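Summary of Year 1 activities. Much of the first year was spent building the evaluation harness for sequence design. The harness presents a backbone, in tokenized form, and records the residue chosen at every position. We chose the following record to illustrate the format because it has been used consistently in internal testing since the harness was completed.
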């Protein structure tokens, strides 16, 4: 399995280079089109306000870290500092390494703190938290798209795309709720089908284990649903406030409202989901945010400046994550490889008891650099 992961990394390398270079070209193009001097003026107007942006963005990391903690079931317990540390380190891998978010960034979070909590206990809780997060994103994006459609005049193509997106999201929500209520086994069904085409059989067992964890949590912990959803809502609310505060500083001619900040944050969620494989969403964030900002009566320069400030915020937290990795003796790539190895080689047969979880921790602790 390790060889397969290495092969995948080699296959992704040319694509990573192409997408990264393409992002840099797009970034340079939209910065030039918006006006370098106007962008620089906006950044100067923000000034020390960037500290406030970092404080607000910290709330987002804290909210999702606590949500992850709430998803951990007894007898295991995830401490806040470990959850926050793992989140920052994992996000640093996903934001900086091209394509890492597809296969490494999320699994890296429990893998990097497996000396604190058994690997699969942390991994299962992370999957559950991501399901709640994904649900909140779908609702948030749907609301933002509807607000954009109903309150602003959009170009014909963008309006058609928005209507289709809203319809698709509505169908996804309906099907998702129905499938969860029925306990549908979609993941294991898909892996079983792929097994007939050569997929390793153990991935069927892994997928069943994840499904058992999700549905088991659904049955046993109904009282935790509301706190988790409220924490995910705090994540999105902090994002709206962050954009509002940023626009307040950089756009004195066109003061922002919470409504326009809400729409811009929903667009940001779409861009983040669609282009997470590009480091820091280079270029595409400037393009999307700049265009939507013009629809919301801001200048394109304001939208591009907003996207650049978000990149600076992401770089700050990525640097914090890298520092935490270096403190433990890891580089970004060694941490990513270690996380891949831990997840790929974890034995399903050895995660059925606390004792076997401890064996997994001991076995993989030796991989730390």
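For this record, the design step produced the sequence shown next.
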């Amino acid at each position: 399995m390790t060889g397969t992961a290495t092969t995948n990394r080699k296959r992704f390398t040319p694509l990573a280079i192409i997408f990264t270079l393409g992002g840099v070209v797009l970034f340079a193009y939209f910065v030039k089109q918006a006006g370098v001097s106007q962008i620089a003026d906006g950044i100067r107007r923000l000034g020390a306000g960037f500290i406030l942006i970092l404080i607000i963005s910290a709330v987002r990391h804290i909210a999702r870290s606590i949500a992850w903690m709430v998803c951990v079931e007894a007898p295991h317990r995830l401490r806040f500092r470990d959850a926050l540390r793992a989140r920052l380190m994992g996000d640093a891998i996903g934001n900086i390494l091209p394509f890492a978010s597809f296969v490494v960034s999320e699994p890296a979070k429990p893998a990097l703190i497996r000396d604190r909590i058994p690997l699969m206990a942390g991994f299962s809780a992370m999957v559950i938290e991501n399901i709640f997060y994904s649900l909140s994103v779908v609702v948030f994006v749907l609301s933002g798209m509807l607000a954009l459609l109903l309150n602003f005049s959009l170009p014909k193509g963008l309006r058609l795309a928005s209507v289709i997106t809203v319809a698709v999201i509505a169908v996804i929500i309906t099907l998702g709720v129905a499938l969860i209520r029925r306990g549908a086994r979609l993941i294991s069904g898909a892996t079983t089908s792929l097994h007939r085409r050569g997929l390793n059989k153990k991935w069927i067992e892994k997928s069943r284990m994840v499904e058992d964890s999700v549905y088991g949590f659904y049955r046993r912990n109904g009282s935790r649903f509301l706190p988790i959803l409220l924490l995910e809502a705090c994540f999105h609310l902090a994002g709206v406030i962050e954009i509002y505060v940023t626009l307040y500083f950089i756009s004195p001619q066109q003061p922002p409202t919470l409504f326009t900040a809400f729409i811009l944050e929903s667009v940001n969620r779409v861009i983040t989901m669609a282009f997470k494989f590009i480091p820091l969403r280079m270029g595409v964030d400037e393009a999307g945010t700049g265009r939507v900002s013009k629809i919301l009566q801001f200048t394109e320069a304001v939208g591009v400046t907003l996207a650049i400030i978000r990149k600076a915020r992401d770089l700050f937290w990525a640097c914090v994550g890298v520092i935490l990795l270096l403190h433990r003796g890891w580089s970004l790539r060694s941490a990513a490889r270690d996380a891949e190895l831990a997840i790929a080689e974890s034995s399903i047969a050895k995660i059925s008891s606390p004792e076997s979880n401890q064996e997994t921790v001991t076995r993989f602790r030796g991989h730390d650099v």
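The radius of gyration is 21 Å. Quantitative recovery figures across the full test set are reported in Table 2.
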